[in-house]
Amino acid sequence: MRKNTYLHDNNDVNLILKGFTSVLIGIYMIIGVYLIQTILTGFLIDDNPLGMLSAEIIELFCIGILFLVFLGTSVALIFGGRRIAKKFQYRLWNSKTKKTAFHYLLLVAMLFFTLMILMNAGMINALTPTFLILYALFLFRLKNKDRKQLVLLSGLAFLLAICCFFIPSYWAFTLYILGFGHMVYGVIIR
After folding, report:
1. Which of 68, 139, 161, 164 has the smallest number of CB atoms closer than 10 Å to its CB?
2. pTM for the full model?
């Protein structure tokens, strides 16, 4: 069994939202929004096979897609951090990275819990603005002196939340814009 004696600890968070990782998150977000929009549109059309399914099954499909997007973004963050840690011969899971991963999981659980409460209360038009506001706060929480550029992405999410609050039918477009914003952020900030 080989020991990792050549790896040394660093004081930085190794799970970084920039570069290719951010591009992948944007792509996953766009694909997830497209699939949910297609399912919901198909459910409302009479001749579409999805129109014959119950609302509960459509709801489960949408929750499953959201779970897959969360899983894809988590894997992208871990593999992106692993690539950076391997490049500089750092340990991936230092104390700051563990703390950030715990905060990430806690905030995602709170986000899903809040969205499920809104959905069960029948406040469907509030789902996307609430998600965007909580996502903006989440990105702002991840910001530190080395990652000041996250404020731009956080500000974009907040502005899109305001837009979606006033025009609820633009929910998909605001999420597409956020996905493209992630992609642009990943290309510009490397």
Report:
1. 68
2. 0.84
